[in-house]
Design brief:
two-stranded antiparallel ribbon, 2 helices, elongated, 35% helix, two-stranded antiparallel sheet, binds zinc ion
């Protein structure tokens, strides 16, 4: 199987997978990462994909901490 985000695999996609990122508005950037933004599936750039994933991980971590708070030391 070909690499999902580089090489001949993305040549088949429209405009070689390039376009304007709906989040950071950069043009001529590869949009190969599917993300759900405000309930809509969109393809975003690598940077925005990482940003979204980091924000989700951070939110999950803080939610977990809120459910089970660490015992306070006395
Ligand atoms: Zn972006």
């Amino acid at each position: 199987m070909s690499k999902a985000h580089r090489g001949s695999g993305i040549r088949k996609t429209p405009n070689s997978g390039r376009g304007t990122c709906p989040i950071c508005k950069r043009t001529g950037i590869k949009l190969l990462y599917e993300q759900t933004v405000e309930g809509t599936k969109v393809n975003v750039c690598k940077t925005c994909d990482a940003t979204i994933k980091n924000a989700a991980a951070k939110a999950a971590k803080s939610a977990k901490a809120a459910v089970a708070p660490a015992p306070a030391a006395e």
